[in-house]
Amino acid sequence: MERIKLLKVHYLPKELEEGFLYVSEEFGVAGHLCPCGCKNKIITPIEPTEWSFKEFNNKPTLFPSIGNWQLPCKSHYWITDGKIEWSYQWSEQQIIEGREAEEEKRKTYYDNLENKPVKQSLIRRFINFVFGK
Ligand SMILES: [Zn+2]
Protein backbone atom coordinates (compact mmCIF):
# COMPACT_ATOMS: atom_id res chain seq x y z
CA MET A 1 0.00 0.00 0.00
CA GLU A 2 1.52 3.29 -1.08
CA ARG A 3 1.30 6.21 1.25
CA ILE A 4 1.09 9.90 0.61
CA LYS A 5 2.02 12.43 3.23
CA LEU A 6 0.28 15.72 3.80
CA LEU A 7 2.33 18.85 3.35
CA LYS A 8 0.54 22.11 3.96
CA VAL A 9 1.95 25.00 2.01
CA HIS A 10 1.19 28.59 1.17
CA TYR A 11 2.02 28.20 -2.50
CA LEU A 12 2.50 24.99 -4.41
CA PRO A 13 6.22 24.66 -5.15
CA LYS A 14 7.29 24.36 -8.77
CA GLU A 15 8.96 21.05 -8.14
CA LEU A 16 6.86 18.56 -6.26
CA GLU A 17 8.32 15.57 -4.49
CA GLU A 18 6.89 12.12 -4.88
CA GLY A 19 4.90 10.79 -1.98
CA PHE A 20 3.57 14.15 -0.82
CA LEU A 21 0.22 15.81 -1.21
CA TYR A 22 0.81 19.54 -1.14
CA VAL A 23 -2.22 21.43 0.03
CA SER A 24 -2.71 25.17 -0.01
CA GLU A 25 -5.90 25.87 1.86
CA GLU A 26 -5.48 29.61 1.28
CA PHE A 27 -5.58 29.16 -2.47
CA GLY A 28 -7.87 26.15 -2.50
CA VAL A 29 -5.56 23.88 -4.45
CA ALA A 30 -3.67 20.65 -3.94
CA GLY A 31 -0.87 19.15 -5.98
CA HIS A 32 1.01 15.88 -6.12
CA LEU A 33 3.00 13.77 -8.53
CA CYS A 34 1.15 10.95 -10.21
CA PRO A 35 1.84 7.96 -7.96
CA CYS A 36 2.40 5.60 -10.89
CA GLY A 37 5.91 7.04 -11.17
CA CYS A 38 5.38 8.96 -14.42
CA LYS A 39 6.20 12.17 -12.49
CA ASN A 40 3.37 14.16 -13.98
CA LYS A 41 2.12 16.95 -11.78
CA ILE A 42 -1.50 16.53 -10.78
CA ILE A 43 -3.26 19.69 -9.67
CA THR A 44 -6.62 19.30 -8.01
CA PRO A 45 -8.62 22.42 -7.16
CA ILE A 46 -10.27 22.17 -3.76
CA GLU A 47 -13.67 23.64 -4.36
CA PRO A 48 -17.25 22.51 -3.81
CA THR A 49 -17.55 21.57 -7.50
CA GLU A 50 -14.11 19.95 -7.74
CA TRP A 51 -12.40 18.02 -4.94
CA SER A 52 -13.00 18.04 -1.26
CA PHE A 53 -10.06 17.79 1.10
CA LYS A 54 -10.13 16.35 4.60
CA GLU A 55 -7.41 15.43 7.01
CA PHE A 56 -7.37 13.19 9.99
CA ASN A 57 -4.25 12.73 12.13
CA ASN A 58 -2.32 14.58 9.43
CA LYS A 59 -3.45 12.03 6.83
CA PRO A 60 -5.04 13.55 3.74
CA THR A 61 -8.19 12.44 1.97
CA LEU A 62 -9.28 13.79 -1.39
CA PHE A 63 -12.69 13.08 -2.80
CA PRO A 64 -13.71 12.04 -5.42
CA SER A 65 -11.12 9.79 -7.04
CA ILE A 66 -8.41 11.17 -9.29
CA GLY A 67 -8.59 9.96 -12.87
CA ASN A 68 -5.61 11.01 -14.94
CA TRP A 69 -7.02 9.85 -18.21
CA GLN A 70 -5.47 12.79 -20.01
CA LEU A 71 -2.05 11.31 -19.19
CA PRO A 72 -0.46 8.39 -21.04
CA CYS A 73 -0.55 6.31 -17.82
CA LYS A 74 -4.33 6.87 -17.33
CA SER A 75 -3.93 6.31 -13.60
CA HIS A 76 -7.05 6.23 -11.50
CA TYR A 77 -6.86 6.14 -7.74
CA TRP A 78 -8.20 7.47 -4.51
CA ILE A 79 -6.26 9.31 -1.85
CA THR A 80 -7.85 8.11 1.34
CA ASP A 81 -6.46 8.60 4.81
CA GLY A 82 -2.95 9.11 3.47
CA LYS A 83 -3.05 6.02 1.28
CA ILE A 84 -3.14 5.58 -2.48
CA GLU A 85 -5.92 3.20 -3.40
CA TRP A 86 -5.61 2.12 -6.99
CA SER A 87 -8.62 1.61 -9.13
CA TYR A 88 -8.85 -0.10 -12.47
CA GLN A 89 -7.35 1.78 -15.39
CA TRP A 90 -9.78 3.63 -17.55
CA SER A 91 -10.45 1.86 -20.79
CA GLU A 92 -10.81 3.75 -24.05
CA GLN A 93 -14.53 3.10 -23.85
CA GLN A 94 -14.81 4.64 -20.37
CA ILE A 95 -12.83 7.67 -21.49
CA ILE A 96 -15.18 8.15 -24.42
CA GLU A 97 -18.19 7.70 -22.14
CA GLY A 98 -16.72 10.16 -19.65
CA ARG A 99 -16.31 12.72 -22.42
CA GLU A 100 -19.83 12.07 -23.69
CA ALA A 101 -21.20 12.54 -20.18
CA GLU A 102 -19.39 15.88 -19.98
CA GLU A 103 -20.67 16.83 -23.40
CA GLU A 104 -24.19 15.92 -22.29
CA LYS A 105 -23.84 18.05 -19.16
CA ARG A 106 -22.65 21.00 -21.25
CA LYS A 107 -25.48 20.50 -23.72
CA THR A 108 -28.06 20.42 -20.92
CA TYR A 109 -26.57 23.60 -19.53
CA TYR A 110 -26.84 25.41 -22.86
CA ASP A 111 -30.29 23.95 -23.53
CA ASN A 112 -31.42 25.47 -20.26
CA LEU A 113 -29.95 28.79 -21.31
CA GLU A 114 -31.72 28.54 -24.63
CA ASN A 115 -35.03 27.88 -22.93
CA LYS A 116 -34.99 31.30 -21.35
CA PRO A 117 -35.46 33.29 -24.58
CA VAL A 118 -38.33 30.91 -25.43
CA LYS A 119 -40.07 31.82 -22.18
CA GLN A 120 -39.46 35.50 -22.85
CA SER A 121 -40.95 35.21 -26.27
CA LEU A 122 -44.04 33.56 -24.76
CA ILE A 123 -44.39 36.52 -22.43
CA ARG A 124 -43.93 38.83 -25.38
CA ARG A 125 -46.59 36.96 -27.29
CA PHE A 126 -48.88 37.34 -24.29
CA ILE A 127 -48.14 41.07 -24.12
CA ASN A 128 -48.74 41.34 -27.84
CA PHE A 129 -52.05 39.57 -27.34
CA VAL A 130 -53.15 41.72 -24.43
CA PHE A 131 -52.12 44.96 -26.03
CA GLY A 132 -53.28 43.89 -29.44
CA LYS A 133 -49.97 44.38 -31.22
ZN1 LIG B 1 1.13 8.41 -14.00
Characteristics of this structure?
4-stranded mixed beta sheet, 133 residues, 2 domains, binds zinc ion, alpha+beta
Describe the model:
The chain is an alpha+beta fold and 133 residues long. The protein has 2 domains: 2-89, no CATH class; 91-133. It is 29% helix and 33% strand. It contains 1 helix and 9 strands; from the N terminus they run E-E-E-E-E-E-E-E-E-H. The protein has one helix spanning 92-130, and strands at 2-3, 5-8, 20-24, 29-33, 41-45, 52-56, 59-67, 76-80, 83-86. The strands form 2 sheets. A 5-stranded antiparallel sheet has the order 1-9-8-7-6, with no helix packed on it. Strand 3 (20-24) and strand 4 form a beta hairpin. It is elongated and about 75 Å long. The termini are far apart. The relative contact order is 0.12. The mean pLDDT is 86. It binds zinc ion. Residues 34, 36, 38, 40, 68, 71, 73, 75 line the site of zinc ion.
Instruction: Give start-end ranges of low-pLDDT stretches.
Output: none
The N- and C-terminal alpha carbons lie at a distance of 74 Å
Helicity range:
25-40%
Biggest β-sheet description = 5 strands, antiparallel
Shape: elongated
Radius of gyration: 22 Å
What is the number of E strands?
9
Bound compounds: zinc ion
**Average pLDDT for all residues:** 86
Coarse structural class? alpha+beta
What is the domain total for the residues?
2
Strand order of the largest sheet: 1-9-8-7-6
Total of helices: 1
Give the SSE string: EEEEEEEEEH
Our estimate of the beta-strand percent is 25-35%
